[in-house]
Amino acid sequence: MSDALAAALTIDGLVKDVGPFPALDGRMKRVISDLSLTAHFGQVTVLLGSNGAGKTTTLECAQGLQRRQGGNISLLGQDPEKADASLRARVGVMLQDGGLPPAMRPVQLLELVAGMYQNPLPVNELAEQLGINEFANTTIRRLSGGQKQRVALAAALIGRPEVVFLDEPSAGLDPQSRQLVFDLIRQLRADGLAVILTTHLLDDAQRLADYVYIIDDGRTVAEGTVPELLSNAAKVEAERSFSFDASAALDFSGALRAEVAIVETRPGSYLLTGPLLPEDLAALATWWAEHHVMPSAINLASHSLEDVFLDIANAAAAERSGT
């Protein structure tokens, strides 16, 4: 297995055009614009974005399934567009539509796929881990969407890959199946694999990601660990049963660091925003003690990844529209 935290995939300045389209007078449409990312071994890298943002296209370019018009891609040290069989054997791919043969049964398919590799995972063990044995004798065409997802994931993992691409892996899964898939993804990370997945589900990203790239309109609009993305959205709200006078409010503002802003949202209710630290909370408590103030309510919370995503998506949409 490759060294943990070494780069398994690097994308630098990816450009992808599709078309031509009659509605564009026969011109091509740019769907990926100067997108860059890095995915490391021993980490789950998440491409987060709404439907149509360019996540799947980015993955397909990274796998060599679509030709790019610009930029450089290195997958396990090779250009995926020029990859040979040795690279393919080291990469597992789970496509969003699955691409599973409808007439086959799950275990039959997994045994067929396993036969393509020199040292595959035991089919029975993988089928048991993903709960596939429950419907092993049912043809794929009769499976539910979530069951097909589990079979597609097993097929992507059967060859013991070093890098796994998962396109919307929890789509259509019931809560129990989703937990099975999440547990397996965490195990892949612990085993040192590079896991690259796309999702539009914010909870998936928050629960699984070591590093997140937020994609909008074919561009990376934000990136970071989940705590980094959330760090500037932390907030403290203190509600009191009375209003401060102007001088008291001014004194209170001066007790805080410059990075922390205070806004009176309504009489007696104050919102603190910024990267809050323990000393900020200590300053808040000290001010209360010095002024003999007992707050009627305190709400200490952080924005969710959903809040961050919506803020970024709305800002990107406003930029595109020129507003």
From TrEMBL:
The listed locations are: Cell membrane
Q: Which Pfam families match?
A: ABC_tran
Coiled-coil residue windows: none
One GO CC term, this protein: plasma membrane
Q: Name one GO biological process term.
A: response to antibiotic
Assigned keywords, A-Z = Antibiotic resistance, ATP-binding, Nucleotide-binding, Transport
**Locate the ABC transporter domain: which residues?**
9-242
Query: Topology relative to the membrane, per the entry?
Result: Peripheral membrane protein
Q: What's a Gene Ontology MF term here?
A: ATP binding
Domain of life from the UniProt record: Bacteria
Query: What name goes with this protein?
Result: ABC-type multidrug transport system ATPase component
| Naturally occurring in which organism (per UniProt) | Renibacterium salmoninarum (strain ATCC 33209 / DSM 20767 / JCM 11484 / NBRC 15589 / NCIMB 2235)
